[in-house]
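Async update (no meeting this week)

Hi team, since we skipped the sync, here's where things stand on the single-chain job. The sequence we agreed to prioritize is pasted below, unchanged from the tracker. I ran it this morning and attached the output directly underneath so nobody has to dig for it. Comments welcome in thread, and please keep replies under the output.
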Amino acid sequence: MIGVLNVNKPVGMTSHDVVARVRRLAGERRVGHAGTLDPGATGVLPLCLGPATRLAEYIGQTGKAYRAAVTFGIATDTLDAGGRETARVPVPGLGAEAVAAVLSRFRGEIEQVPPMVSALKVGGRRLYELARQGVEVARAPRRVTVYRLELVGYEPGEFPVAHLAVECSAGFYVRALAADIGAALGVPAHLSGLVRHRVGPFSLEEAVALEALEAGGVERYLLPPLRAVAHLPVVRLARDEVRAVRQGRPPRRPVAAEPPAWSGAGAREAARDRVALVDPDGQLVAVARRDGSGGALALEKVLP
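Output:
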């Protein structure tokens, strides 16, 4: 079995829980997700099956879109609703206008300090492992990009809630954004709800519930491997070139690439100099990188 599933992860399950469920349903050991979604969050979780697991990194490098709920006046040690409360200060005077006014600080290319509860490594240890031991270490800020950040709803009160539309690059932490917005306003804040609407070309509207996979079978909803790299320009190979590529020999002729099937936020940055090599039937054969100004191709990943 080979392909990609666009799963709508339910609240309360870890990304690994979803992977384990799909392994059982598909009878396929090789299943991997293309970017963790926290247990308290819902929405798009792309899964790669069989040899397509080698393509997961390309999905993970694409832009993402979320709807986030940020509660003001309450802070937690994990920056989200799953953590221990560390501050509670009613802020009934905080209005939507004040929140909207600070959002411009977080648009475009910014520096973001990753949260302690994350899978990043410092000194060979996962940050979340250190956090569980009560250890906090310095984290270097990272350059990330926010393509869109808009206030789309507001619930006033002692602990008001802002609803945000967020489009961001890979490596962005919405939990950290919530806390940083609170800091900019001078009040505690945490991420109280999160729905992932898009990962690269995979949208929530097309995502499949686990119940549907249980009822209809995995193969019914399996997408071709080419969807995993829909942000890459496409180079079409002749049949003899397909055989050569599968033997590790890239095309030596000048190649012209067709535009990518998906060109949304973050697509160009994720593509870099890569192209998708497809056979005459439009099936993905390999991912290659243009090597130097001459346009020669170097193979990165070849599918069976």
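Quick observations from my side:
The domain at 1-63+200-230 is CATH 3.30.2350.10 (Pseudouridine synthase).
Residues 15-26 form the longest helix (12 residues).
Reply here if anything looks off.
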